[in-house]
Amino acid sequence: EMGVTISNKNGLPADENGDIVKANAFTDFFKNLFGSKESGDIKTDMMVQLKKHEGYKAYPYKDTEGKWTIGIGHLIGDGSTKGSYAQYSKSNPMTDADVQDLFNEDYEEHVNIAKGYPAFDKLNDSGRKALIDLTFNMGDLTRGWPNTLAMLNSGDFEGAAKAIEGSKYAKQVGNRAKTIAKQIRNAEIIKSDVEA
User: Fold this and answer.
1) How far apart are CA 157 and CA 104, in angstroms?
2) CA 79 vs CA 1, 112, 148, 186: distances in Å
3) CB 73 within 8 A of CB 50
4) Residue 94 per-residue DSSP state
5) Three-class SS of residue 189?
6) How many angstroms separate the CA atoms of 103 and 54, rounded?
7) DSSP assignment of 9-59
8) pLDDT tens series, the chain, 196 aa
Protein backbone atom coordinates (compact mmCIF):
# COMPACT_ATOMS: atom_id res chain seq x y z
CA GLU A 1 0.00 0.00 0.00
CA MET A 2 1.29 3.43 -0.97
CA GLY A 3 2.02 5.82 1.91
CA VAL A 4 1.22 9.51 1.57
CA THR A 5 3.78 12.00 2.80
CA ILE A 6 4.30 15.71 2.24
CA SER A 7 6.66 16.47 -0.60
CA ASN A 8 9.47 18.78 0.52
CA LYS A 9 9.61 20.33 -2.91
CA ASN A 10 6.06 21.61 -3.29
CA GLY A 11 4.11 20.69 -0.17
CA LEU A 12 1.60 18.52 -2.02
CA PRO A 13 0.68 14.95 -1.03
CA ALA A 14 3.24 12.61 -2.52
CA ASP A 15 4.34 9.02 -2.23
CA GLU A 16 7.67 7.97 -0.76
CA ASN A 17 9.35 8.76 -4.12
CA GLY A 18 8.09 12.34 -4.08
CA ASP A 19 5.58 11.71 -6.89
CA ILE A 20 2.20 13.44 -6.58
CA VAL A 21 -0.43 10.87 -5.60
CA LYS A 22 -3.63 10.24 -7.54
CA ALA A 23 -6.56 12.64 -7.30
CA ASN A 24 -8.73 10.84 -4.75
CA ALA A 25 -5.80 10.47 -2.34
CA PHE A 26 -5.07 14.16 -2.96
CA THR A 27 -8.68 15.07 -2.12
CA ASP A 28 -8.67 12.85 0.98
CA PHE A 29 -5.42 14.46 2.13
CA PHE A 30 -6.94 17.95 2.02
CA LYS A 31 -10.20 16.84 3.60
CA ASN A 32 -8.23 15.33 6.47
CA LEU A 33 -5.90 18.33 6.68
CA PHE A 34 -8.78 20.79 6.99
CA GLY A 35 -11.04 18.56 9.06
CA SER A 36 -13.86 18.32 6.53
CA LYS A 37 -13.93 14.54 6.41
CA GLU A 38 -15.81 12.76 9.16
CA SER A 39 -14.27 9.69 10.72
CA GLY A 40 -17.45 7.64 10.89
CA ASP A 41 -17.02 7.45 14.67
CA ILE A 42 -19.38 9.90 16.37
CA LYS A 43 -17.14 10.39 19.43
CA THR A 44 -14.09 11.21 17.30
CA ASP A 45 -16.15 13.55 15.12
CA MET A 46 -17.54 15.24 18.23
CA MET A 47 -14.09 15.69 19.72
CA VAL A 48 -13.00 17.53 16.55
CA GLN A 49 -16.21 19.59 16.53
CA LEU A 50 -16.04 20.42 20.23
CA LYS A 51 -12.34 21.35 20.04
CA LYS A 52 -13.35 23.83 17.35
CA HIS A 53 -16.31 25.15 19.34
CA GLU A 54 -14.90 25.05 22.86
CA GLY A 55 -11.21 25.50 22.16
CA TYR A 56 -8.33 23.49 23.58
CA LYS A 57 -6.10 24.75 26.34
CA ALA A 58 -4.12 22.49 28.64
CA TYR A 59 -4.15 25.09 31.41
CA PRO A 60 -6.91 27.09 33.15
CA TYR A 61 -8.42 29.98 31.24
CA LYS A 62 -11.55 32.09 31.53
CA ASP A 63 -14.25 31.28 29.01
CA THR A 64 -16.47 33.87 27.31
CA GLU A 65 -18.59 34.13 30.46
CA GLY A 66 -15.53 34.62 32.70
CA LYS A 67 -15.66 31.11 34.18
CA TRP A 68 -12.50 29.08 34.78
CA THR A 69 -12.22 26.30 32.24
CA ILE A 70 -9.53 23.84 31.11
CA GLY A 71 -9.00 21.36 28.29
CA ILE A 72 -11.87 21.12 25.80
CA GLY A 73 -14.46 23.29 27.52
CA HIS A 74 -14.24 21.56 30.92
CA LEU A 75 -15.79 23.89 33.49
CA ILE A 76 -13.74 23.82 36.69
CA GLY A 77 -16.26 23.39 39.51
CA ASP A 78 -18.67 26.30 39.39
CA GLY A 79 -16.12 28.30 37.36
CA SER A 80 -15.25 30.75 40.15
CA THR A 81 -11.72 29.42 40.82
CA LYS A 82 -9.02 27.33 39.17
CA GLY A 83 -9.52 24.77 41.93
CA SER A 84 -7.27 21.71 41.73
CA TYR A 85 -6.13 22.82 38.27
CA ALA A 86 -4.27 25.90 39.58
CA GLN A 87 -0.99 23.98 39.22
CA TYR A 88 -1.28 24.13 35.41
CA SER A 89 -0.14 27.08 33.30
CA LYS A 90 1.16 27.84 29.81
CA SER A 91 4.64 26.90 31.00
CA ASN A 92 3.37 23.85 32.94
CA PRO A 93 0.41 22.50 30.94
CA MET A 94 -1.69 19.46 31.66
CA THR A 95 -0.67 16.46 29.54
CA ASP A 96 -2.63 15.72 26.38
CA ALA A 97 -3.58 12.37 27.92
CA ASP A 98 -5.06 14.12 30.97
CA VAL A 99 -6.97 16.56 28.74
CA GLN A 100 -8.27 13.56 26.78
CA ASP A 101 -9.37 11.87 30.03
CA LEU A 102 -11.26 15.02 31.06
CA PHE A 103 -12.89 15.20 27.64
CA ASN A 104 -13.90 11.53 27.85
CA GLU A 105 -15.60 12.13 31.20
CA ASP A 106 -17.36 15.26 29.98
CA TYR A 107 -18.37 13.60 26.73
CA GLU A 108 -19.93 10.62 28.52
CA GLU A 109 -21.80 12.94 30.88
CA HIS A 110 -23.25 14.99 28.02
CA VAL A 111 -24.02 11.99 25.80
CA ASN A 112 -25.98 10.53 28.71
CA ILE A 113 -27.94 13.78 29.00
CA ALA A 114 -28.62 13.75 25.24
CA LYS A 115 -29.65 10.08 25.34
CA GLY A 116 -32.33 11.08 27.83
CA TYR A 117 -34.24 13.00 25.16
CA PRO A 118 -36.82 10.90 23.28
CA ALA A 119 -35.49 12.23 19.96
CA PHE A 120 -31.93 10.95 20.48
CA ASP A 121 -32.54 7.28 19.67
CA LYS A 122 -34.67 8.20 16.65
CA LEU A 123 -32.13 10.48 14.99
CA ASN A 124 -29.26 9.80 12.62
CA ASP A 125 -25.73 10.82 13.61
CA SER A 126 -26.18 14.39 12.34
CA GLY A 127 -29.10 14.99 14.71
CA ARG A 128 -27.33 13.23 17.56
CA LYS A 129 -24.22 15.38 17.09
CA ALA A 130 -26.35 18.52 17.29
CA LEU A 131 -27.89 17.34 20.57
CA ILE A 132 -24.51 16.40 22.04
CA ASP A 133 -22.97 19.76 21.11
CA LEU A 134 -25.93 21.65 22.58
CA THR A 135 -25.80 19.71 25.85
CA PHE A 136 -22.02 20.11 26.03
CA ASN A 137 -22.48 23.86 25.80
CA MET A 138 -25.69 24.36 27.79
CA GLY A 139 -26.34 21.26 29.87
CA ASP A 140 -29.86 19.83 30.09
CA LEU A 141 -31.94 21.27 27.24
CA THR A 142 -35.30 20.49 28.87
CA ARG A 143 -34.88 23.65 30.96
CA GLY A 144 -34.54 26.16 28.13
CA TRP A 145 -35.31 24.36 24.89
CA PRO A 146 -38.42 22.16 25.37
CA ASN A 147 -40.04 23.38 22.13
CA THR A 148 -36.89 22.72 20.10
CA LEU A 149 -36.64 19.23 21.58
CA ALA A 150 -40.30 18.62 20.71
CA MET A 151 -39.64 19.73 17.11
CA LEU A 152 -36.67 17.36 16.86
CA ASN A 153 -38.76 14.54 18.29
CA SER A 154 -41.53 15.12 15.73
CA GLY A 155 -39.13 15.49 12.78
CA ASP A 156 -39.62 19.25 12.31
CA PHE A 157 -35.93 19.80 11.62
CA GLU A 158 -36.42 23.08 9.78
CA GLY A 159 -38.39 24.50 12.73
CA ALA A 160 -35.76 23.30 15.21
CA ALA A 161 -32.94 24.78 13.11
CA LYS A 162 -34.75 28.11 12.84
CA ALA A 163 -35.32 28.11 16.61
CA ILE A 164 -31.56 27.73 17.14
CA GLU A 165 -30.70 30.39 14.55
CA GLY A 166 -33.18 32.92 15.95
CA SER A 167 -32.14 32.49 19.57
CA LYS A 168 -30.10 34.61 21.97
CA TYR A 169 -27.79 31.57 22.08
CA ALA A 170 -27.00 31.99 18.34
CA LYS A 171 -26.04 35.62 18.91
CA GLN A 172 -23.68 34.53 21.70
CA VAL A 173 -21.97 31.62 19.93
CA GLY A 174 -22.08 32.69 16.26
CA ASN A 175 -20.75 30.01 13.92
CA ARG A 176 -21.32 27.27 16.47
CA ALA A 177 -25.07 27.83 16.16
CA LYS A 178 -24.77 27.77 12.35
CA THR A 179 -22.98 24.39 12.51
CA ILE A 180 -25.61 22.98 14.86
CA ALA A 181 -28.48 24.32 12.72
CA LYS A 182 -26.91 22.69 9.66
CA GLN A 183 -26.61 19.38 11.54
CA ILE A 184 -30.26 19.66 12.54
CA ARG A 185 -31.30 20.31 8.93
CA ASN A 186 -29.32 17.20 7.93
CA ALA A 187 -31.00 15.13 10.62
CA GLU A 188 -33.31 12.27 9.74
CA ILE A 189 -35.54 10.05 11.80
CA ILE A 190 -34.09 6.57 11.50
CA LYS A 191 -36.33 4.88 14.05
CA SER A 192 -40.03 5.48 14.55
CA ASP A 193 -41.87 5.45 17.87
CA VAL A 194 -44.21 2.90 16.35
CA GLU A 195 -42.65 -0.36 15.25
CA ALA A 196 -44.39 -2.22 12.40
Assistant:
1) 29
2) 50, 22, 28, 34
3) yes
4) P
5) strand
6) 11
7) TT-SEE-TTSPBPPHHHHHHHHHHHTT-S--S-HHHHHHHHHHHHH--EEE
8) 334 344 334 444 444 454 444 434 433 443 444 444 555 789 999 999 999 999 999 999 998 889 999 999 999 999 999 999 999 999 999 999 999 999 999 999 999 999 999 999 999 999 999 999 999 999 999 999 999 999 999 999 999 999 999 999 999 999 999 999 999 999 999 876 544 4
